[in-house]
Every structure is written in structure tokens, then in C-alpha cells.
Amino acid sequence: MRTVRVELGARSYPIYVGEGLLPQVGERARQHLPGRRLMVISNPTVLGLYGTILLEGLRAAGWEVLLAEIPDGEEHKNLTTAAQLYDRAVSGRLERGDAILAFGGGVVGDVAGFVAATFMRGIAWGQVPTTLLAQVDASVGGKVGINHPQGKNLVGAFYQPRMVIADVSVLASLPGRELASGLAEVVKYGVIRDAAFFAWLEEWVEPVLSLESEALIHAVATSCAIKAEVVAADEQETGKRAILNFGHTVGHALESITNYSRFAHGEAVAIGMAVAARLARRLGLGFSQEEEERLLGLLQTIGLPTSVPPDLDPEALVQFMQRDKKVRGGRIVWVLPRRLGEVLLKEDVPLELLLEILSNQA
Ligand SMILES: NC(=O)c1ccc[n+]([C@@H]2O[C@H](COP(=O)([O-])OP(=O)(O)OC[C@H]3O[C@@H](n4cnc5c(N)ncnc54)[C@H](O)[C@@H]3O)[C@@H](O)[C@H]2O)c1
Ligand SMILES: [Zn+2]
Question: Does 241 sit in the ligand 1 pocket, CB within 6 Å?
């Protein structure tokens, strides 16, 4: 097992990454969470697969469990679900000194964290992320929230958990596409911060794809460590944390113009990283053709797309990015690679060049 610490002063917390950790969650939770009552928030998919093993361990460790099931799916990451969870907490007499445990993917984590941040002005919570995306991204950094009909993650807070337990064994049941999608973020960490990790991924991609535990543990723990370091430098996202958006400017536009139904998040981000790499190279930022080929090669080995499908309109993508930028009251801030392991922020990217690359003519 590996332990990554997220260093945030009084709000610091550990992320445990290992194999077969579910039965020990109860014991670990005793170390990090107060009280003896725990509201476990999960969904039918995750509970059907791993509910028994988690709950048995919790009860064996002395926890009185209040189980709260929410429906599966991003469309349920909303205020209605949060309201039902408040009702459950009240009727189950959850108290300020008790705690919440999120058990599931990023949707469960985001809603459960939001409820933890707001119920009785905030109660302690922990996370047991069960998708690769949740293990390497959503469970690190304390962003919690729900969607609003007008936009994703429009309502939320920064509210750190007391502990995270990432058991890589549960990834065995993850659909292949979800695994690949999560790996896009793993590749992202290598590009933005750690060339040696990128090279390690190139060498170990097959063991990772075939879910060999040691390789998965290294991939997840290193990803968490990189995100933790970036978050520690900028918890409230005022500047430095922006580098985590590498690949996401175009990625979000792709997801949005296709109504979040065509691409898995990581697929859109993979295309976004490929576009950013081409932009960086054409702008002469130092990123070499060889590095671009290595990035595209790794993404393709994972089974991720690396170019904008020809039926999508580049103009529509650019329009989305500009509208999105206005909503945030600023300019489009591009995160572009200078070399593998280092990115820079750039605002003034020529529109013609962007359109050329989006239409795969570059
Ligand atoms: N808070 C953050 O910093 C942050 C960062 C990135 C993403 N997010 C959020 O995370 C969400 C996406 O997370 P996600 O990709 O985990 O989606 P998800 O939570 O919807 O999970 C994807 C699917 O996998 C199922 N599942 C979960 N664990 C499984 C397992 N072990 N085996 C088989 N199936 C399993 C889920 O029930 C669901 O159907 C989005 O809402 C996004 O906004 C948050
Ligand atoms: Zn992402």
C-alpha cells in the first residue's frame, strides 16, 4: 500500500492506495473520522458489486451504518438528490459529530462531499472512490458540488475529506471505456508535471491496461501525488491549479457541443491534449515533433482518440470556448506543453491556427 498526503495545513489528509483495501475501510475510518455513526452514500451499481464487503468491514469495526442510496448517473448529480440526502440524514438522526462516507465514482463523491460540506454547516467525510477517474482526480483536492440545469458543477464548495481510500481491486469491474477515460487524466499528470512518470507510463501501459495491481497502484498513487502537490500550491484555484486544465479547454467544448453523450470525459480530454500539443509545436514553444508523437502514441495505445472527428464543426467548438470564456469573465487561458513534464499558460493563441488544427489540417 502507498500513502499520499495532501498537504493543506490543518486540512491535510491521507490518500491510501492499495489492493484489497475495502475490508479495512472501517478500521481506517476509525483513525480519521469522528463519531460512531456513518452515513454511507453510494449507488445501486457500486453497492451491488462491493456493498457487502464494505459494509461488513464497517460494522466489524464498530460503525453504525446509515445507508443512503442515490440513483446512478450524472443526471442525478443535482439538488433533488442532495435534498433527498439531507432528508435521510435528518430522519436517520445524523449528528454534527458523525460522518459521511462516499462510496462510488465521481458523481457519488461530488454529491456526498457537497452534502457533507453543507449539512449542519459541515460534517466530517471520507471517500472510497471506485472509478479510475475518481481515484486519480475527483477524490483529490476537495472540490465538491452539483450540477445546475444551466451548467455543470455550478453549485459547490471546496471541502476537503479527512481520508481517501483508493482500492485498485475494484477497477476490475470497470468497463474498458471508463478505464481508458480515467487513464487520459493519468497521462495528463505526466505531461504537466513529470516526464519520468510519462516515460514510466509508456513502458508500463500494457500492465496498467491489464490491471496488474503493482502497476495500477503506482499509476494511481503518482497521479494523486502530482494533483495533491498542485492543489497544495493553490487550494482555491486562483492560478497555479489551472495547469490541471491541460486538454480541457477543447475537451469541455467537445463534450458540450455533443451534449455530453458522445465522448467519455477522458476521450474529449485526450483530443484536447492532442490539439494543445499541436498548438504548442506550431507556436514554437519548445515541444518537439518527437514529443508530440510520443504523446499521441501513448493515448492511442490506451485506445483514446487524438483528433477532432471530421463531422464536428470547428467553428462551433471555438464559439463554445469563447462563450465559456465570457461566462468566466476573461480570456481563454490555454495550457500548452513546453516539453514533456512542463506546461505554460498562454492567452493569445491565433484563431486561424486554432481552426486549422481543429479541422485536422495542421
Ligand atoms: N471534484 C472534482 O475535482 C472532480 C474532478 C473530476 C471529475 N469530477 C466529477 O466526477 C464525475 C465523473 O466521475 P466518474 O467518471 O467516476 O463517473 P460516475 O461516478 O458516473 O461513474 C461512472 C459509472 O461507473 C459506475 N461504477 C463506479 N465504480 C464502479 C466499479 N468499480 N465497477 C463498475 N462500475 C463502477 C458508476 O456507478 C457509473 O455508472 C463528474 O460528475 C465530474 O464532474 C469531479
Ligand atoms: Zn478532467
Answer: no
How much of the chain, in percent, has pLDDT values that exceed 70?
Answer: 98
Fold of 176-358: Dehydroquinate synthase-like, alpha domain (1.20.1090)
Nearest-atom index, ligand 1, CA of 182: 15
The answer to whether 2-173 and 176-358 have equal CATH topology is no
Residues annotated as part of the active site: 121, 143, 185, 227, 237, 241, 245, 248, 252, 265
User: DSSP characters for 167-226?
Assistant: EGGGGGGS-HHHHHHHHHHHHHHHHHH-HHHHHHHHHHHHHHHTT-HHHHHHHHHHHHHH
Q: How far apart are CA 256 and CA 245, in angstroms?
A: 16
Pick the CATH number of 2-173 from 3.40.50.10140, 3.40.50.1970, 3.40.50.300, 3.20.20.70: 3.40.50.1970
322 in contact with ligand 1, CB cutoff 6 A: no
**Ligand 1 test: best mutation among 19, 110, 164, 167, most atoms within 8 Å of CB?**
110
- Ligand 1 center to 135 CA (angstroms): 9
* Reported confidence tier of residue 239, pLDDT bands at 50, 70, 90: confident
Maximum C-alpha span of the chain: 63
Report pLDDT for 279. 97
Confirm or reject: Cβ of 102 under 6 Å from ligand 1.
no
- Mapped onto helix, strand or coil, the DSSP state of residue 16 is strand
pLDDT in tens, 25-44: 999 999 999 999 999 999 99
Compute the distance from residue 75 Cα to the ligand 1 centre, in Å: 12
